[in-house]
Every structure is written in structure tokens, then in C-alpha cells.
Design a protein that fits this description.
Order of helices and strands: HHHHHEEEEEEEEEEEH
Distance between the termini: 87 Å
Largest sheet: 5 strands, antiparallel
Number of strands: 11
Length: 267
């Protein structure tokens, strides 16, 4: 009888040590969420979102919490609980460290390969990965949306098309609000500037630039709502941002056909 009592006492002790209170995420699930968040942070830093990094991180975290069916309140309360229990927190981060070490080991063993986009003829892909809406109605100027695309995303002969809606309110005190695009090739840079109209109305903008068919693109950089001035109030909203990589059909001789795009976007 004594042996049975000791056996059940051991089971109860093990169960009590491996569970968390109601409303607190289990250790394994918490580690998985933090693991994805760390990876998202690393990707966002590599992509160099600059001034938009914070908003991009928030968007990434929302997606991760949705993936694991976890509310913001439950996640926050769980992190507070683990912080108040150092032994549990240490065990949690030991588990997380093992996951990250395994990932690094797999990377070093070349188990992961860079994904190279497969470009089909007449293929149009939205490559914009930042938030699609920005509200600049509560602060000072020099709030702008900088974007950057690496060399492996666009190729010879592609078309670059960026579309967005902009409401530039009359009380906006910035000067020279404009869209700026710079495409860097080896030894030269092509630029494009488009100025915005300040009338308090929603206006749609489309910026298109055909990329060189002979020279590889190094980088593409730009900014929405570039402006001049200091310590002036800004009042603008950018919405529905999309950036398309257009891969044209090619025919014999390597010539590029762009008439299909002209028919679609000239309407």
C-alpha cells in the first residue's frame, strides 16, 4: 500500500511541475511562438525595412499569434508569468536555445537552400511585403515609407510597377511631397520622380519603370511621400500599396513582348 501511495505522489508531483496555470501558455507552445518571432525579427532586419521596421514587426507578430491561435492578452500574461517564475523561464529559454541551435546546425549542414523565384511568361507577382497602409496624421514630417528590393528579386527585362492610393490633406505643411524611385545597375542608376497633389482627395498613383533587358539589376530603392521641411505637421494617409514584378513573354530571338501589359494597364 505504501508503494502505491509513493507511486501516485510521484505522478502528482510530476504533473504539477509540467503544467502551467489557466491562461498561461504551455512551455512547448510558448517556445514555438518565441522561436517564430525570433526568426521573423531576423528576416525583418535582413530585409532592412528601416523606419518601417516597428510596424513590420507588429504585423509579423500578429500573424504568428494567429498561426498558433494565441491572443495578445494570453501571450502577454504568459510572458509575465514566466518572468515571475525564474526556474520556469530558464527552462523555457533552454528549450528555445536548443531549437535555435538545431536550426543553426541544419543551416551549416546546407539542409536549407535559397529559394530562387520561378518566373513564368507574362507572370505578374506582388512582391510588396510591408504594411499596405500608413497613417501620417498625428506627427511631424519625415514620416515616409522607404522600400528596398535586393538584386535577386528583379531580373533583366522585368517591369517594375508600384500602385498606391494617397490622401494628402490641405493642412499638411510639408513641401514637395513626391514619390522617388532609384534602380541601381553596375556603373549607373536610373531614377524616377512623381509629385503628389495636395487637395485632401484620395488619388490613385501608378509608377512604372521597365528594367534594362541587357544589365542585371543590383538594387531597387525608393520612398513614398519624400518631402522637405522641418518641424512641420504632416497630414497624409497612404493605402493599398502594391508592388508588382512583371515578367514579360519572350519570343524567338529573345525579344520582349510588352503589348499585353500596355493593353491591361492603359485602361
Amino acid at each position: 500500500m505504501k508503494t502505491i501511495i509513493v507511486y501516485f505522489a510521484a505522478i502528482l508531483l510530476l504533473f504539477s511541475c509540467s503544467t502551467t496555470p489557466k491562461g498561461v501558455l504551455p512551455e512547448r507552445k510558448t517556445a514555438d511562438v518565441l522561436y517564430d518571432m525570433y526568426l521573423a525579427d531576423a528576416c525583418n532586419m535582413v530585409k532592412n525595412y528601416g523606419a518601417n521596421l516597428d510596424s513590420t514587426k507588429r504585423q509579423s507578430y500578429r500573424y504568428i499569434l494567429h498561426k498558433y491561435d494565441v491572443s495578445v492578452a494570453d501571450f502577454d500574461s504568459s510572458m509575465v508569468w514566466y518572468s515571475a517564475h525564474p526556474d520556469k523561464q530558464e527552462h523555457l529559454y533552454d528549450r528555445l536555445t536548443l531549437q535555435l541551435q538545431k536550426l543553426q546546425k541544419d543551416v551549416n549542414a546546407h539542409k536549407y537552400k535559397q529559394i530562387i523565384p520561378v518566373l513564368a511568361e507574362n507572370d505578374t507577382v506582388d512582391v510588396w511585403q510591408m504594411p499596405r497602409r500608413f497613417d501620417f496624421t498625428t506627427g511631424f514630417i519625415h514620416n515616409k515609407v522607404n522600400f528596398h528590393f535586393d538584386r535577386n528579386l528583379f531580373h533583366k527585362g522585368n517591369g517594375f510597377l508600384l500602385t498606391y492610393r494617397l490622401k494628402l490633406n490641405k493642412e499638411d505643411q510639408a513641401e514637395g511631397n513626391k514619390f522617388l524611385l532609384k534602380v541601381a545597375y553596375p556603373g549607373k542608376t536610373d531614377s524616377l520622380v512623381s509629385y503628389a497633389k495636395k487637395d485632401g482627395q484620395w488619388r490613385s498613383y501608378r509608377v512604372f519603370m521597365p528594367l534594362s533587358a541587357k544589365t542585371e539589376v543590383m538594387t531597387i530603392d525608393g520612398g513614398l511621400l519624400e518631402c522637405k521641411g522641418n518641424n512641420m505637421h504632416q497630414s497624409a494617409i497612404i493605402a493599398d500599396v502594391h508592388c508588382y514584378r512583371i515578367t514579360y513573354a519572350t519570343h524567338k530571338g529573345g525579344k520582349t513582348s510588352r503589348s499585353w501589359w500596355q493593353k491591361i494597364f492603359s485602361k
